Amino acid sequence: MASSLPPVLLSLLLRVTLGSPQKPLWPLQRVPVVWPQQTQDLAPPRFLHHAQLQVTSSCGPECHKRAPTASYWDLRRFLSYETLHSSGQLTETDVGIYGFDANAFKTPAGQSRAKRQIFGHDSRFSIVGHDFLLNYPFSAAVKVSTGCSGTLVGDRHVLTAAHCVHDGKNYVKGAQRLRVGFLKPQHKDASGRNGTNSRAKTKFQWIRVKRTHVPKGWIKGTANDIGMDYDYSLLELKKAHKRRHMKLGISPSAKRLPGKRVQFSGFDNDRPGHLVYRFCEARDETYDLLYQRCDAQPGASGSGVYVRMWNARRRRWERKVIGIFSGHQWVDLRGAPQEFNVAVRITPLKYAQICYWIKGNYVDCREG
């Protein structure tokens, strides 16, 4: 049965630090520059398959931690990107990297690995009611027409998972005519009366996507190898959405998160028409991935994983997206299947790249 979060508890969860005895501080980190260099046209994509909403991998947390450290040239290749235009044109852009400290490229010390399950009690909450659905931060959650979720991160920009638009080998069906849906409750309930109660039906208002950016770190392989580190994509809309968007943030280590927890909202397929909210503990991490125990179902992939922390310099609380929910990952380890929920962490390099895609310059991308 779908659970609905009581308004009082919902407001509390959005404001408290979930168990942290002191104010959790956004870390001050130097942001490198990821600078586009050369762009060339590619052959038009073929749009062969439908998006797969569950990611399969043969590499779990320990496997990722043992992977060799990427070189500077590897990183340049991974952060180069393709751009799919709504006209069908496809381009590839090479990038340069400046001001990046290679010594910072190391895996944080995480906690023990844990399987992801929905244990007896499903900890997800359906957000219902006009007042919550159209208010921030829930208003920043959107639906992608290929079946995923996304988060507003600019006046015209949506952050989602790369596998929602590209399967690692080619763009998926629907990627050229991609649309983003904004959940809007109707003002009449099932009885035909005006109102904004929990019985009010919901519908989506759709905006077409103008450009889709996908890093080559995802395209170079498939969802079955280390490419999952780059399972993120940025969508540029054809017109402004006029809603409040979330800020981007560089992902702190799991032990520095408020209560070691993360939150995200998405459109799980088993609750059609509902925006589903959850929060849970982050249990393990690599430099690029965050492993957590949030209950989720297909459709939530691409949701922005966010936390609320104190900005000491600006002296205010700020809620920022620090990762992209990649979804369920079934890991086949020597014939023993294990299941994880994984988010792609926004590292300094990824922050620089995504911010540049949004802002169009690096001057406005120096603080993460």
Give your account of this protein's structure.
With 368 residues, the chain is mainly β. The chain is built from six helices and 18 strands. The strands form two sheets. Strands 2, 5, 12, 13, 14, 15, 16, 17 and 18 form a nine-stranded mixed beta sheet that branches. A six-stranded antiparallel beta barrel has the order 6-7-8-11-10-9. The chain is globular and about 50 Å long. About 6% of the residues have low confidence.
Distance between termini? 39 Å
Mean pLDDT comes to 82
Strand content: 25-35%
What coarse outline follows from CA principal-axis ratios?
A: globular
Give the assembly state of these chains.
single chain
Number of strands: 18
Rg (CA only): 20 Å
Structural class: mainly beta
Q: Which runs of at least 5 residues are low in confidence (pLDDT < 50)?
A: 16-20, 109-120, 194-199
User: Roughly what percent helix?
Assistant: 10-25%
Order of helices and strands: HEEHHEEEHEEEEEHEEEEEEEEH
Q: How many strands, which pairing sense, and closed or not: the largest β-sheet?
A: 9 strands, mixed
Number of discrete helical segments: 6
Brief summary:
With 368 residues, this protein is mainly beta.
Structure keywords:
368 residues, mainly beta, six-stranded antiparallel beta barrel, 6 helices, globular
